[in-house]
Each structure stands twice: as C-alpha cells, then as structure tokens.
Design goal:
Elements lengths: L2 H15 L1 E8 L5 E6 L4 H8 L11 E3 L4 H24 L3 H15 L6 E2 L6 H5 L13 E4 L5 E6 L5 E4 L6 H6 L11 E5 L5 E5 L16 E4 L3 H7 L3 H9 L11
Parallel strand pairs: 1-5, 6-10
Antiparallel strand pairs: 1-2, 3-4, 3-5, 6-7, 8-9, 8-10
Helix pairs in contact: 3-4, 3-7, 3-8
InterPro entries: Caps_syn_GfcC_N (IPR046459), Caps_synth_GfcC-like_C (IPR010425)
Pfam family, one: Caps_syn_GfcC_C
Keywords: Signal
C-alpha cells in the first residue's frame, strides 16, 4: 500500500470513527437513522429530525440501549413480586388480591422494555439553549416523537382499565373516581405518571389528600395494589410498578 492510499484510508477511518449513528422516529420530517458528528447531543438529533407541528413534545422519548438491561431486570423483579403476591393471596384465600395480581402480572408481561430515559427535554430549540438538559448521545440511541393523545388512562387495581376524556384542570383523583376500583385497590394513594415519564404519588384519602393535580394529555394513573399486602412481599412493589410503567412510550407513527 502506497503512502497516498494509506493516508486516504486513515482519513476515512477517522471520519467514520467521529460519527455517532442514532435513530429518530415518530411525528418527524426526517425519520430513520442519521449520523451526527461526535460528540453528539440531544439537540443535534432533535434538530435533524425536524419534529412536525403535531408532535407531542411533552411525551417525546429518549430511548437508550444502554438502559435495556437495567429495565429488563426491573420488569423481571416486578413480575416476580406479583407472582409472589398472588401466591400469598391464594394461601390466605384473598381471591380479589390474587385476581388483581394475576391480571396486572399478565398485562405487564406484555409490555416492552424500551430503554426510555426520563424525563428528557426533547424540544429542539428548548434543549439547544439548555445546557444541563442537552445530554450526550450514544450510538444506537433513538428519539421518538408521539402524537398528542386525547385521554387519561387509569390502570392497576381496577375492575377494567379505563381511558377517560381529558377534562382541563380536573384533579387526578376525579379520574380514579370515574373508573371502578377493584377490591384489592389501595385506598390511600395513587401514582401519576406524566407523559414525560415523571412519577409522583398523590394522596387521595381524607386523611392524606394532596392538593389538586391537573394532568397533561396522555398521563397514566396507576391505582396501586393494597399497600399493606404488597409491602409483605416487597416494600417498594407499587413504586417499582409505577417506575416501569413510566418507561413506556405514547403511541405515534411507528409505535403501536
């Protein structure tokens, strides 16, 4: 190999090594794989994607392969705890708790492990000027921009999961009141999962009632299993379930 060929080969190698390949999908003008100069940040991918006007920024998701193993373990732990709770409930002849545990376990087992990092600021211009939120990207990362949902979902220890129309400024507690709870539901707290993946606990009983919390479109309310029973299996079971649900993404182009 002569010197000129060697130099060209090294230049090509250094160019390839200095590129980070990421994916953008959903309601964007330019979907698919894109190569960005290394180091690449969230703003670089977001600007390259050009989200469409109908993209729902509050529900946009940063999906990271590097988080998949951790979230797979989280899911496995939740499923194990629910199976253990079901067995304890059957042994204690608590049919309602056994049925709710089994139903919740079946549903969660069907959910994907996404690798979602949340919350993440993914509005192109907003993240570009917000240095602390403009994180570095790794090869294989994906930005997904969903469409704006029209409702609020109530899941967990309910007779049937509910999708309810959004009522502006309505307290989260009132959505729960509109969805029939199961006998195994905890009556003191609910978990609210915002579209950006942020989770907070809201007291709903008379003794611990929190201030009213209005919800954004696409929020999910997890009605926890009876805390006194769940705590005997794992002190953080309900919190872990809510944390796993927060890794899910909203529907949009390319995502069911």
């Amino acid at each position: 190999m002569n010197r000129a060929c060697f130099v060209l080969l090294m230049l090509a190698w250094s160019t390839a090594a200095a590129a980070v390949q990421v994916q953008v999908s959903g309601a964007v003008a330019h979907s698919g794989h894109t190569e960005l100069n290394d180091p690449a940040r969230l703003s670089d991918a977001a600007i390259a994607a050009q989200p469409l006007p109908q993209a729902y920024m509050k529900g946009a998701a940063w999906l990271r392969p590097g988080l998949l193993v951790t979230q797979q373990r989280m899911k496995a732990g939740v499923l194990f705890d629910l199976a253990s709770l079901q067995q304890r409930a059957l042994a204690g002849d608590d049919q309602a708790l056994a049925a709710s545990s089994a139903a919740l376990r079946s549903w969660i087992s069907s959910l994907p492990v996404t690798g979602r990092e949340s919350p993440a600021l993914l509005d192109p211009r907003a993240v570009e000027v917000n240095a602390p939120e403009n994180h570095l990207l790794a090869a294989g990362d994906e930005l997904f921009y969903p469409l704006r949902p029209e409702g609020i979902r109530v899941v967990g220890a309910v007779q049937q999961p509910c999708t309810l129309p959004l009522v502006p400024l309505q307290d989260a507690r009132l959505y729960v009141d509109a969805c029939a709870l199961g006998d195994a539901a905890d009556r003191d707290n609910i978990y609210v999962i915002e579209p950006d993946g942020h989770v907070f606990v809201q007291g709903v009983a008379l003794w611990n009632r929190s201030e009213a919390q209005a919800l954004a479109p696409g929020a999910v309310i997890y009605v926890p299993l009876r805390e006194s029973a769940a705590r005997k299996v794992d002190a953080t079971m309900n919190r872990d379930i809510a944390a796993f649900l927060a890794t899910q993404v909203l529907p949009g182009p390319g995502k069911p």
